[in-house]
């Protein structure tokens, strides 16, 4: 009987840990508050240069599509437009994991993040050598209407 009780306790503990990793709020209140404080403190101290450096190094180390898409979602969720160095690193990562559609969608994300069309065109112009090297077309070039 004790073996069965121990197995049930381990399964319950594993479920709680998985829920915490998935961001569900089954963690004790003290743990949630501590994690929120640490996250808020970390984000408040980060400069734009540190942000760019963090994401360039992240995309340089990407090894699969899931990591790439997760990184792009996180990077584009901030209230700023990533620098061209971050975008270049993300484009190279998308071609490294052999996902052409994600490379095209990076430019769609830029178009949504910038304030006006001229800023988007400046990004496209600045990244033109990388696009040509990697063979990436824009959505506008793929679907001419």
TrEMBL record:
Biological processes per GO annotation: mitochondrial electron transport, cytochrome c to oxygen
Annotated localization: Mitochondrion inner membrane
Ranges in a coiled coil: none
Keywords, in A-Z order: Heme, Iron, Membrane, Metal-binding, Mitochondrion, Mitochondrion inner membrane, Transit peptide
Gene3D superfamilies found in the cross-reference section: Cytochrome c oxidase, subunit Va/VI (1.25.40.40)
Keyword Iron assigned: yes
Keyword Mitochondrion: yes
GO cellular component, one term: respiratory chain complex IV
Pathway membership, UniProt: Energy metabolism; oxidative phosphorylation
Molecular-function GO terms, alphabetical: metal ion binding
Topology relative to the membrane: Peripheral membrane protein
Family: Belongs to the cytochrome c oxidase subunit 5A family.
The protein's assembly and partners: Component of the cytochrome c oxidase (complex IV, CIV), a multisubunit enzyme composed of a catalytic core of 3 subunits and several supernumerary subunits.
Physiological role: Component of the cytochrome c oxidase, the last enzyme in the mitochondrial electron transport chain which drives oxidative phosphorylation. The respiratory chain contains 3 multisubunit complexes succinate dehydrogenase (complex II, CII), ubiquinol-cytochrome c oxidoreductase (cytochrome b-c1 complex, complex III, CIII) and cytochrome c oxidase (complex IV, CIV), that cooperate to transfer electrons derived from NADH and succinate to molecular oxygen, creating an electrochemical gradient over the inner membrane that drives transmembrane transport and the ATP synthase.
Protein's UniProt name: Cytochrome c oxidase subunit 6, mitochondrial
């Amino acid at each position: 009987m004790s073996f069965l009780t121990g197995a049930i306790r381990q399964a319950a503990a594993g479920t709680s840990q998985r829920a915490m990793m998935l961001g569900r709020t089954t963690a004790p209140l003290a743990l949630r508050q501590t994690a929120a404080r640490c996250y808020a403190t970390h984000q408040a101290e980060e400069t734009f240069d540190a942000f760019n450096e963090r994401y360039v190094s992240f995309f340089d180390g990407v090894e699969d599509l899931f990591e790439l898409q997760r990184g792009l979602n996180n990077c584009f969720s901030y209230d700023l437009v990533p620098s061209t160095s971050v975008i270049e690193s993300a484009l190279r990562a998308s071609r490294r994991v052999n996902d052409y559609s994600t490379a095209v969608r990076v430019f769609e994300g830029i178009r949504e993040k910038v304030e006006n069309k001229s800023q988007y065109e400046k990004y496209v112009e600045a990244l033109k050598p990388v696009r040509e090297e990697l063979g990436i077309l824009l959505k506008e070039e793929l679907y001419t209407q």
